[in-house]
Fold YeeE/YedE family protein.
Amino acid sequence: MRGLIALASGLLFGFGLLISGMANPAKVLGFLDLAGAWDPSLALVMAGAIGVAFLPMQWVQRRGTTLRGEQAQLPTSRTIDRRLVIGSLLFGAGWGVAGFCPGPGLVAASALIPQALLFVAAMLLGMWLFAQYDRRVKA
């Protein structure tokens, strides 16, 4: 049952990305083009997502458990450190260059769009490289 809930949630999320146009890198790059033909629709999608998630997140934070009664895994640190800043800069640069972030990139890759497949391959390589680096630093 847990797998079916995860599958349904993922499909709903993916369809939402498709319907909103967020799996289209031109739409994302239009949002990031503040000096040109700026497209504010991504901000509206983000505001809608925040609105939908706000009350459930408040509930989970108060109870500390999910709807299924499992322990919620919420971030505990509020520290802005070098790792967070560098990771954020890399994420933003990749988003600005490719027009994809992980969710929309995976949705577009599932449609076998070449740019998305390249993005997902680069994302997986970056995750692997970070895991190798992090393992060495913590050792």
Observations:
- The chain has a mean pLDDT of 89.
- The first helix runs from residue 2 to 20.
